[in-house]
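Section 3.1: Structural characterization of target chains.
Under the original work plan, the team committed to producing a structural model for every single-chain target entering the pipeline before any wet-lab resources were allocated. The record below documents one such target. The sequence was received from the expression subgroup and is listed exactly as submitted; it comprises 124 residues.
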Amino acid sequence: QVQLVESGGGLVQPGGSLRLSCEASGIKLEHYAVGWFRQAPGKEREYISCIPVSATYGSSDYADAVKGRFTISRDNAKNTFYLQMKGLIPEDSGIYYCVNFASAPCNPERAEHWGRGTQVTVSH
């Protein structure tokens, strides 16, 4: 059974930082592009970022809303990937979901398995 489990969410002040982690079991992430989505209250789920299997399949990708502030990375030895978030703003608040994509390069249309999400709240 495939499981993706997020951690690292929480409450942070504007301008602060958080690092989200996503640990997988039942699947070897080294074979898949992986990434993050988020959903704010009353809004649709939106794509945030993706990292391919390796540089052979392209570079990491970011939504315009987070470009320059968020960094995605992966540690295949730990079967885990991360989202480093800096310069957080209230609009970054929401539930963050990790996913694997059914492809080696990034393809947000091919999200396959989802975590249950971790809450990020940016507020004073």
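The CA atoms of residues 37 and 48 lie 5 Å apart.
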